[in-house]
Amino acid sequence: MATLEDITPEMVDAGVRALMTGNQPPRTPAQAVRDIFAQMKAAQSQPPVAGLNTQSPNLRRFIDTKPELTPDDTRRMEAIRQTVPGYSEGMHYAFFKHMLTCASIRKLLILGVYHGRDIAYLMDNARALGRPLQIIGVDKFSDDFCEDWPKERQSLNWQQAGFGTPPSFDAARTHQARLGFADSVTIVQERDDTFLASCTDRFDAIYIDTSHDYYTVVRQIRDAAGLLTEDGLICGDDYSDQGTWGVKRAVTELVPGHVVFSNWIWIGARDQIKILPAARSRNEARLAKESPIDPLRRTRRPTD
To answer: Which residues have CB under 8 Å from 154's CB, separation 6+?
Structure first.
């Protein structure tokens, strides 16, 4: 929505519908503007199904169905945004709602938790939709650099580098518990490469949002491919190659035919991934070395 040329008729219709909902329950002017903006972003045009190189019913429904946010959705999203630190905004909430509405997702993996805002968005949507959902969130939860940080900042911590509060395992767990999601969410404190190499679960969707450099995203897509169910979806944030990032290049090479939501969040199907899921055989070979998850801390611990 940077220019007038970007605004489609579908976006205008969505904005008008949000405006015409009236003021029941009462909305402040700021809330009304947020409702309109969120609806317009959710309705931003999607690529057509024609020529889509996938047999995935989940992805085809995602494309065929028009995204929709209600004013109540926006208010719940805003309540989470105000209390759970993070970088995700209305478009992310709209994406998660659309994905859960269109796809059969009962088990989901998130790589990159930070303080748990994306997990809260997902669980809030699942609860509102009446969909059972289990989420595993994986993050190294450390106050050191990520691979996509500029070289000159890699000796600094998060605050020193200008990236704000570092990721927090305890804060992520606390936020999920406060929101009533603890029974459906497992937080794992571990590097994603270690987790993916030893994981033997299968997921209906995997969402990637850690380091955005090209090589990390390539590795994550390759290693995650074998953990997807037959109609599984793979998706992620920050679809850009700006600066040190290489998300767009990596996704374009490994997931041809993927879809981009609101010009920023990418999604594709398992059968679109070019790299065969050889990572699965490596995972199975390491099964004997898998570390159990401590049910009290919900983080990995060494075997006895």
So the answer is: 145
